[in-house]
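Re-run with default settings, no changes from the original entry. Doing this only to confirm the output is reproducible before filing.
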Amino acid sequence: MDVRAHSIAACLADLDGRFLTVKRRKVRADLTGRTRAGAVTATVRHAVEEAGVGTARICAAAIGTPGLVDRGNARIRYVDHMKTWAEVDIVTVVEQALGCPVAVENDANLAALGEHWRGVGTATTEMLFILLGERLGAGIITGGRLLRGHHGAAGEIGSPGAARRKARGSAPWPTTTTRRAVHTGAAPAARSSKPPLPGTPTPSAY
């Protein structure tokens, strides 16, 4: 499943990654989290029905979403542009609909994993996937494994509208200073000539 502010997609695939069916639907960006979750399960059911596959044959499901996801891939921690979406336990909602294990992951991370598994990144262990759409993000593969970062924010660059919102007096996460800190491991006062204090996070800490 691919859940975005303006759209939802559900794809059913076999164990080799071959698509059996794909269903897409447009949604309003201002949907509440609960209403969006209902649209997700409805789209999934349509995909399953179209493929003619019973839910008992579905081994597992994954949900791609913007924002930060917890380490256990069970809850969305933060999304800045989808109303109350992080308040919904979408993993449990989909588990109840399909009766199989479900995980949620950042959409750019899933895209990077997909390209590394079956796409242009199959021959490399170091890869950066840039996702440019309603927001700007990246999925990072290093040493052949996905880099999430200590706080799950590796690759979270921000949204294209952040500069406009900041100009109106709002400074959404992440700000320009925060993004610089995420990528360099520097604190916001990085221009200081003083040596870093003990325990200052390194780039891998993010």
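Residues 160-206 have pLDDT under 50 and may be disordered. Helices lie at 33-51, 90-98, 107-118, 162-167, 176-184.
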